Amino acid sequence: MKAGRLWTFDGSTEGFVLSGGDALPAAAAGLELRNLDADPILRSPRGLELDGSRYSLLLVRLTRTRAGADWDGTAFYSTAAHGESGEFQATPMAGANPAVNETVVLVYDMANLARGGEDWKSSLVDQIRLDTDDGAGGAFTVHQVAITENPGPAALAQAPANSAAIAAR
Q1: Where does the chain have alpha helices with state H?
Q2: What's the Cα-to-Cα distance from 45 to each of 15, 16, 118, 123, 162, rounded to whole Å?
Q3: If the chain, 169 residues long, is cut into consecutive pieces of 10 residues, what is the mean pLDDT of each piece?
């Protein structure tokens, strides 16, 4: 896969911020999220200038490190034409709601939004947003975030990658 953007959080937040909590470089590697308030929101840096027609797959590899409120998992984005809105969102097609100490890869097919039609594909994407839990108390380590070209339906049809599947490989 060709990545339009890839964040690995090696000793840095790489410009990601968490509203409603703390986002800090993890001790080993990754981005440690501590959800302190209701509806915490993780945002990428602005100015991504990603061609949505080319880069339509959002991948988020994370581990839940502490149980929290109900899982959300919705991804939002902004463009020059619109800010973050419930009218433009995606839910993961794979990897949702990890258990404590489970690593998953959340796979968002942004070309097929839950709400927003063809907007991602016809836009220059400025920023992405990820909602983890709906409330306070949860914690996660985000290992990587990537926005990539879509490898096609055959690759996406494989079983979701979770910690058991990863360990079996």
Answers
A1: 153-156, 163-168
A2: 5, 6, 23, 17, 27
A3: 93 96 92 95 97 97 94 96 96 92 96 94 97 95 97 62 45
Say how far apart CA 116 and CA 90 lie, in whole Å: 9
Task: Say what the pLDDT of residue 59 is.
Answer: 97
**pTM for this one?**
0.89
First to last CA, the chain: 19
Q: Which of 107, 114, 111 is nearest to 165 (CA)?
A: 107
Sorted by where each begins, the domain ranges of the chain are: 3-156
Contact by Cβ (8 Å): 58, 91: no
Q: Which two tokens stand for residue 62?
A: 């994370």
Can you give the pLDDT at residue 27? 85
Identify the burial level of 114 via C-beta atoms within 10 angstroms of its C-beta, where 0-12 means exposed, 13-18 middle and 19 or more buried: middle
Core vs surface per residue 129-153: b (16+ CB within 10 A) or e:
bbbbbbebebbbbbbbbbbbebeee
Asked if 84 and 76 count as a contact pair (C-beta separation under 8 A), the reply is yes
CATH superfamily of 3-156: Galactose-binding domain-like (2.60.120.260)
Cα distance between residue 84 and residue 147, in whole Å: 17
